[in-house]
Amino acid sequence: MTEQLVALCDASAVSEDTPVQAKLAGEELCVYLHDGAYYVTQDLCTHGPGYLSEGFVEGCEVECPFHQGKFNFITGEATAAPCTDKLRTWKTTVQDGKIWINPAEHAA
Ligand code: FES
After folding, report:
1. pLDDT digits (tens, 9 = 90+) for 10-43
2. Which of 41, 66, 70 most suits a substitution to test ligand 1, by most atoms within 8 Å of the C-beta?
């Protein structure tokens, strides 16, 4: 199982309410810490060119800095206009001080 996982970043690099961008195979992902648990979504907003790692986190929502649309970063659901399309999300594993995901979980 572990061999399918890829490390994205150090867990210590992510703090509560301050998401961090990580790159995987040329795609930007966003890593969040909320209530002691880590979450990963695509970093690029589904509405346009905004990067969610540059947005504002409140609770389990992230606000895109571009048009202020919002998403629940746990479920990926869009929660405020103009965003309507869901974000892709990945399950996280914390091991050896790093945050790991299975990239195949959301292979196109
Ligand atoms: S680009 Fe994110 S809300 Fe428009």
Report:
1. 999 999 989 999 999 899 999 999 999 999 999 9
2. 66
Q: Is 48 in the pocket of ligand 1 (CB under 6 A)?
A: yes
Tell whether ligand 1 has an atom less than 6 A from the beta carbon of residue 67. yes
Whole-model pTM over 0.90? yes
As a whole number of angstroms, the distance between CA 43 and CA 58 comes to 16
Neighbours of 14 (CB within 10 A): 21
Domains and CATH numbers, the chain: 2-106 (2.102.10.10)
Measured distance CA(11)–CA(1) in Å, rounded? 20
